[in-house]
């Protein structure tokens, strides 16, 4: 199994266009600190890739990775489709940028599909441009990543009922946010991708404990960070992101897991954006890593 990390930032990216915080200013001064919105490409077969989430950076993300470039036919693309972990805008806005496609396959849970179709009106808007097809991610059964049915299998592990703000009035469902368990039957290896973690349910823990590689929501370093930095009146947990550090934090959980563990979806307030921050040493002491936008994982 081959995974390419396409981005590791939370909504807004790093730098965020309207933000002069130390993280964003640092990234303007040091382009090596820039991060695109969190996303992953998973190889489904020879010259076939699925993107996990479609971010506002999707065009640049495809250009940055030669494996995702079109060819040899003039309009032949290796991007076979998009799998969604949730319906958040930072994970879905890129779908509209794919309107030049001959067809666009989207794999998502029922509530995520409803949000994107009924509230964001993707189908209505894109129908004059391309053919959108949906495949359901059902949390009770394994599906093939590739529409051809071969190769990597996916299980959607329910994480939380956190709805996007634009869908606040939508019905509750345990599959608003899922983690993706990606299993390669040929190598027997498994990766778990969980970029939005508002809770750590048992099913997520079991999947994480079995995985060879775990990539997890690292939006905020600590629970008070959004309040301390003035971006919100709510704590990280109240914003739907378990922090990395502290008693509610994910670091102490990840440190007990046997697989390789990395953080993604970093917010621009996160001290980890500075490569010299002491927080990196704390993570290293626990055997944990921060993913970057060029990371390639072969399992
Ligand atoms: C989140 O990760 O909580 C959302 O993407 C926040 C947002 O709406 O930008
Ligand atoms: Mn987000
Ligand atoms: Zn900022």
Distance between the termini: 5 Å
Structural class, judged by helices and strands? alpha/beta
Quaternary state of this entry equals single chain
Strand content: 15-25%
Helical residue percent band: 10-25%
CATH architecture: 4-Layer Sandwich
Q: Uncertain spans, ≥5 residues at pLDDT below 50? A: none
Largest sheet: 7 strands, mixed
On the 0-100 scale, what is the average pLDDT?
A: 98
Major beta sheet, strand line-up: 6-5-4-3-2-1-14
Q: What is the CATH T-level topology?
A: Metallo-beta-lactamase, Chain A
Annotation, overall tally of beta strands: 14
Overall body shape: globular
Walk me through what this model shows:
The protein has a single domain (2-294), classed as Metallo-beta-lactamase, Chain A (4-Layer Sandwich). The protein is built from 9 helices and 14 strands. The protein has helices at 22-29, 58-63, 89-92, 110-119, 122-126, 202-210, 225-228, 251-254, 279-285; strands at 2-7, 39-45, 48-52, 79-83, 103-108, 131-136, 143-144, 153-160, 177-184, 189-194, 213-217, 260-264, 289-290, 296-298. Strands 6-5-4-3-2-1-14 form a 7-stranded mixed sheet. The protein has a 7-stranded mixed sheet with strand order 7-8-9-10-11-12-13. A hairpin with a 2-residue loop joins strand 2 and strand 3 (48-52). Zinc ion binds next to helix 1.
